[in-house]
Amino acid sequence: MSELENIENVEEVEVIPTDNTTEELQENVEQSTGEVSGEVSGEVTEPEDNSAEIEAEQERLRREHEEYLNSFPETTVFYRDLLVDGDIISLGTAVKDPRVADSYGFLDQHYDESELTYIGTPSCGTYFLKGHERPQPTMQEMIDRKKAEMDAVVQELLDSTAKTKGFTNGAYCAGYAGDPDPEFDAHGTAFKIWRSQVWRKCYQILDAVESGEISLDEITAEYVLSRLPKIEW
User: Fold this and answer.
1) pLDDT per residue as tens digits for the range 28-55
2) What is the rounded distance in angstroms from the CA atom of residue 8 to the CA atom of residue 11?
């Protein structure tokens, strides 16, 4: 007998699911559909506003930090960065007044002033551990350091001014000078002109320092900002 004949002689068997099977399938489908529907149509939970708790914790840390700093003698010098150059150790950003510290963390690196040597001018110098002093910086080195400080202050002014008109920073704002959009062009052009005037004034201040007309100690952030021109949008 051929394989085909064997197949023809096989009786057809009808598989009839029981009522329980049908009900279970229907129940599973409905349950799955409900879960999906719930996920899609469910309301989005808004994140909790815990800004008040964050501010309270920051204030607690600030008070705790201030109490910690005030527990030291007035002659204590704190520093944030330890600079190591061979066997020479300098306290790069030391501050005598503990309240100048701007960190909520505990500054566990500190010395009494008697352990240190300060080299430089009153507004621009470095603390050194005694026995590890570096030579007195040259005038040019101090001017370069002051110029770097001025650059940071002025750049912050440029960027913050550009942001008042919705620009990301000063470079973006100046980039819109000559833009087809009249408003963007006006803002970009005004900013670009003002930016040049600002930097020109900074160089004039540095020239006055080099010529001896202005003392290096006079060049503070407040001094520089008070002498810069105002922008005219």
Assistant:
1) 555 555 554 445 555 666 677 788 888 8
2) 8
Residue ranges of domains in the chain: 53-129, 139-226
pTM: 0.47
Tally the C-alpha atoms within 13 A of residue 72's C-alpha that lie toward its C-beta: 21
Summarize pLDDT for 178-201 with one digit per residue, the tens: 999 999 999 999 999 999 999 999
Residues 6+ apart with CB under 8 A from 124: 142, 145, 146, 149, 216, 217
Question: HEC string of 137-203?
Answer: CCHHHHHHHHHHHHHHHHHHHHHHHHHCCCCCCHHHHHCCCCCCCHHHHHHHHHHHHHHHHHHHHHH
215: nearest Cα among 135, 143, 127 = 143
